């Protein structure tokens, strides 16, 4: 800069005597200007492209979904009581083809059908036996998400089912009424297997829940609502390509409910109970009704709340469930929608993780005359959740990247050894800045606090999965009541399936006091085949 004046003076003095040099210089100036302009154009183009990606990343299907297809209701699974008194279900996992109304059928996987599976239903105290037969042509597994049962019956990656094989876990239902679900859990394959269609609901009842005056006629005033987002190719095939910049993995532009695109459901009662299940790979939904009417939240992942809570929004990250009761007016249409939600990440990830999206989900169409439903009971279930004061151990979990406590899953390593009977605090901190959801097998936990504050009402019931906001610490209280096994671990992991498959998972065993974890951990054997 400081040498500029002399240089320019010298140049201007030379100009008249060196016309060829001046032309050369002018050519250089022109060239530089051209290069500059080209660079500017490139930057502008990149900005436009980025803006286009940015703008397009914000999905809004409000009033753009035509609700023209009747909502599919997964059938209740057939079962029989065998001579030993077990309630036996047969589940056949198999490929199929599904008509999503796209002009041609879509290759999918399903359980006892082409897409998703039947709803299993059982009561507290019942002995369950499920024959899981794998007809999909590659190894998979079936995990009972939210179920309290022995680790070797859990259906995780240590219970793979070989192609053609059958796995027959048995257990006794020993937990309160709840909306649980089942899905594959083979390490590295979970996202793909769930996305293709292997998943279903598992409803538990108990004597108290049956005695309550809640809407409970399955498929009539008690509806399973399994929400997933999909993308389809022009050939109507499932497209599982993750959008650019997504920190969470796959996000689809098409919502399917129970496998139905653009679903409507005729409602004949003035209250309808929705069992909401987020069975999506990565998307977090923030459910509400189009006119912001309050929904009565009656249950969370692991069971009923002590009392209904009126809310206008219920947020569910992948794996979470909520039971809500919606009150209808005769002749109206109420649209269940997913609204933008603050994922508490930076603005860039917020957008590319779907936090800014608005999605129409399901239309409920009320008949002109509605059967009256009894008012909601004021008390629903006893609050028997573990208390922080009972805890004898605190463990900390740091979520960052796709690591938990700086480690990837190692199927041969036991990360935590828990003594049976103990109540523990699991302190989970998302230090990585990206969205995660934290799930623990075997137990239902209570969210004691989030960053020292009482959790919102929607997180005060029994939970097995919870959204882990960036830069926040969750304190979870859980009791490990029974089912010791030093050799077979349970899992804890992020329920964003891309992260889970990438190894954002750890293992714990429940042992008798003083017992050591077994040496043969992780040497899972294939069932059948
Ligand atoms: Cu829903 Cu370990 O899974
Ligand atoms: Cu699970
Ligand atoms: Cu995650």
What can you tell me about this protein's structure?
The protein is mainly beta and 529 residues long. 14% of the residues lie in helices and 36% in strands. The strands form 6 sheets. Strands 14-13-12-16-21-18-19 form a 7-stranded mixed sheet, with no helix packed on it. Strands 1-15-23-22-17-20 form a 6-stranded mixed sheet, with no helix packed on it. A hairpin with a 2-residue loop joins strand 13 and strand 14 (260-261). It starts with a helix and ends in an 18-residue tail after the last strand. Mean pLDDT is 93; it is low at 1-16. One copper (II) ion is lined by residues 143, 145, 439, 441.
Structure characteristics:
single chain; 529 residues; mainly beta; six-stranded mixed sheet; 14% helix; disordered N terminus; binds CU-O-CU linkage; binds copper (II) ion
Number of β-strand runs: 33
- Unreliable segments (pLDDT under 50, ≥5 consecutive)? 1-16
Oligomer: single chain
Rg calculated over all Cα atoms? 28 Å
Helix content: 10-25%
**By helix and strand content, what is the structural category?**
mainly beta
Distance between the terminal alpha carbons, to the nearest Å? 78 Å
Shape: globular
Q: Proportion of β residues?
A: 35-45%
Major sheet size, sense and barrel closure: 7 strands, mixed
Instruction: Specify the number of helices.
Output: 6
- The strands making up the biggest β-sheet line up spatially as 14-13-12-16-21-18-19
> How confident overall, as mean pLDDT?
93
Hetero groups in this structure are:
CU-O-CU linkage, copper (II) ion
